[in-house]
Amino acid sequence: MIRIRQAQQVERSGVSLTRLLPCVLPCVLTGVGAVAAAVAPRAPLADTVYTFDLASTSDLAGASSGSPSGFCAPGDSCPTDATYALGANVLPVTGALSIDTTTSQMTFDIVLGANATFTSSSSGSVTLDAGSSFVASSSTPNSSSIGVSVSSATKKGVTTDTVLPGTGTYTVLSTLILPSGTTQTQSQPILSGLDCSFTVGSTGTCGFVLGTPDTGATNILQINNGSPYDGVLSFNLNMTPVPLPASLWLMAGSMGGLVLLRRRSWCNA
């Protein structure tokens, strides 16, 4: 009789474990996977679009920068011999920038955050008003995204992407807000000197120049206040990553809750 009861107890234990195993094992494997993901080095994703907001320290650079901004008479060396110079000032800019490492394309929408006054010792001044914009995006009429070359390097689990100019020539749609008496006569300057770097999942920097001093160039930034002047504008951008929308985190949590609820209902059956 004792042996029969022991056999029945073993049988019950076996049935109980058999029923519990499908419920417990996925949870165990999920926990192990989460720990492994937390400690494993982060590798760059093969198909990723990185989107950044511009930090408050982003600016249109003045003479205190290695590549200042100015407006020059056509044919003059610009901005070295600028008729209108930004001086030592730097002017804040706002906006966003996105880099697609799969298609090797960069887009941005930059807006001047304050009036930028370019002064001259003999010709008064020229002001670009706050709200003047500079756009590179295939979704914007008369604009296009910028072709880039992206390279990645991972060291001690931290991945850094470097973004340099791609092949070809690219222009940026520039819409200047100008005071009465000054008009914009050319609006699609060439982008040059592109040099960006960012840590995957973290911050980055990006610099480039809009405009060219080349005489006879067709893709320039030009204004006219009685005489034409070609602009060369230098941007220094500090980038902060745009976080994943809260709705996506909420959706992921809801899906996980539904899976656990379904598993719990099945295990209690």
Highlighted features:
2 helices, 269 residues, alpha+beta, 15-stranded antiparallel sheet, two-stranded antiparallel sheet, globular
Write the layout of secondary structure elements.
Layout (H helix, E strand, L loop, with lengths): L1 H38 L9 E6 L4 E2 L9 E3 L11 E2 L5 E10 L4 E8 L3 E4 L5 E4 L4 E4 L9 E10 L2 E8 L7 E3 L7 E5 L3 E9 L4 E7 L10 E4 L3 E14 L4 H23 L1
Antiparallel strand pairs: 1-5, 1-17, 2-5, 2-17, 3-4, 3-17, 5-6, 6-9, 6-10, 7-8, 9-12, 10-11, 11-14, 13-16, 14-15, 15-17, 16-17
Helix pairs in contact: 1-2
Average pLDDT figure:
80
Domain unit count: 1
Treating each run of at least 4 consecutive H or I residues as one helix, how many helices?
Answer: 2
Distance between the termini: 32 Å
Name the structural class.
Answer: alpha+beta
- How many β-strand runs? 17
In helices, the fraction of residues equals 10-25%
Shape: globular
Rg computed from alpha carbons, rounded to a whole number of angstroms: 29 Å
Q: How would a textbook summarize the main sheet?
A: 15 strands, antiparallel
- Would you identify the regions where 5 or more consecutive residues have pLDDT less than 50? 28-46, 246-250
Beta content comes to 35-45%
Give the SSE order as H and E letters.
HEEEEEEEEEEEEEEEEEH
What do you see in this structure?
This protein has helices at residues 2-39, 246-268; strands at 49-54, 59-60, 70-72, 84-85, 91-100, 105-112, 116-119, 125-128, 133-136, 146-155, 158-165, 173-175, 183-187, 191-199, 204-210, 221-224, 228-241. The protein is an alpha+beta fold. The chain has one domain (49-241). The two termini are 32 Å apart. Mean pLDDT is 80; it is low at 28-46 and 246-250.
